[in-house]
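Why does residue order matter? Because the sequence determines the fold. Keep that principle in mind as you read this record.
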Amino acid sequence: NVSNTKAEAPSSKFATTVAKDGSVKGFVLASCGMCNFGMKGQKECSLAIKIDEMVYSVNGTKIDEHGNSHAKDGFCNAVRVADVNGKIVDGNFETESFVLTKN
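Structure:
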């Protein structure tokens, strides 16, 4: 049987662009900028998000505040999805909220 009921829109969506005022809200890819997003100039592991093809360092939360970054599912070994709210300022993502989705 096929239902004709219209599917509900998710409460959040993947952020594919940055608003003109720099705001970002929704799901993003999150990982270690150096290990997985190819951020040149990084000398150590650090948290980053990816929106479309752009990668931004994250300020307001640290890579190891979300578990061991070098664990099997840690940011240095995996790209994760996070639900975020914040703003791009001077090429960095200033987070107001950063919540990892469950695997």
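Residues 12 and 26 are 5 Å apart (CA to CA).
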